[in-house]
Amino acid sequence: MIDSMKDAIRILLLGPPGSGKGTQAAMLSEKFGIPHISAGDLLREEVAKKSATGRNVEAMMNAGKLIPSEIVTEMVRQRLSKNDCSRGFILDGFPRNTEQREMLGVKFDVAVSLELEDTLAIARLSGRRQCLDCGKIYSGDAAECECGGKLYQRKDDKPAAMRERLKIFHRDTRPLIDFYRKEGTLKTVDASKGVDIVFAAICRSIQ
Question: What is this structure's pTM?
Answer without folding.
Answer: 0.79
